[in-house]
Amino acid sequence: MSSGTQVRPRAGADPGTPAARAPRIRGELAARWHRDRVLLVLAVPGVIVLVLFHYLPLLGNVIAFQDYQPFLGISGSDFVGLSNFSVIFDGDPEFLNALVNTLVITMVQVLFVFPLPIALALVLNSMLNERAKRLAQSILYLPHFLSWVIVVALFQQMFGNGGMLNEWLRSADLGTFHIIGVPELFKLLITSQVIWKDTGWSTIIFLAALSKVDLNLYEAAAIDRAGPLRQLWHVTLPAIRPVIVLLLILRLGDSLTVGFEQILLQQGPVGAQASEVLDTYVYNNGIIGGNWGVSAAVGLVKGVVGVVLVLGANRLAHAMGERGVYSK
């Protein structure tokens, strides 16, 4: 057989067999590589960073099963099995307090923070004056670029005991209103900070989705005498529903992670009972307290629960006819 002769499946061979499919699959992969080679090369640095700083560190979760001592390292520390998970299985009071606070904050933010960017995006999208729209967007995006240190400092200067609000109330003989440092108001405080800082920035994705809505649908709805509210309910929201479902699934997967830096900066005045969440629990027990194995165990369980929530929510989205994070 000459070197230039192509190898073909023998006559009568089933085209569905692996031997018959292999040449076709190789040809398709080669065509895709030739077509997307520039994009694939550009993606290499990002993949390297992802592997080095996100996937390789996962190997460090082995300390969740060790009595880890930093000066001994992973190889020198003793394995203790599941004993580090006893704070979870036995219901350690500090862990349960952190878990309850985390779930309450997550529930509040899903109910009140998540819908706000959608509503704000709808308002911005309805603005006819493009200059006013761009100005409003610039103002709303600005807080996102401030660090939590600056945001917390601003709120303290505005609403602290010696802040601008209380100084004005004192000057008007109206008494004072304590917000900062009050345990009962802490969850409301951090929720309002998240709303002020990130709501404007979160509208970007929804505005992009709204820009893809076919205007002919609105014209058809108007011909059918549908008012603004009916157009919103029957045209706009169904058009951006896949984006809403996708972001909600991702938010549920991240539900046990709530504002570590934001909460840590304000934890002192209100105390751990009102402010301790799983992230600060891991930090306070691991970095501060030296209980590295326990902290790694809690972090590992938190990550596993997040993955389960994403998979479960994605399966529910498929059952509702949505694509979700990934298709079936």
UniProtKB/TrEMBL annotation:
InterPro entries xrefs: MetI-like, MetI-like_sf, UgpAE/MalFG_permease
Membrane topology: Multi-pass membrane protein
Region called Disordered, residue ranges: 1-21
Subcellular location: Cell membrane
Principal localisation: membrane
Organism domain of life: Bacteria
CDD domains with a match to the protein in the record: TM_PBP2
Pfam families, alphabetized: BPD_transp_1 (PF00528)
Alphabetic keyword roster: Cell membrane, Membrane, Transmembrane, Transmembrane helix, Transport
Domain ABC transmembrane type-1: 99-313
Residues spanning the membrane: 38-56, 103-127, 139-159, 292-313
Family: Belongs to the binding-protein-dependent transport system permease family.
Protein name: Sugar ABC transporter permease
Organism from which the protein derives: Kribbella speibonae
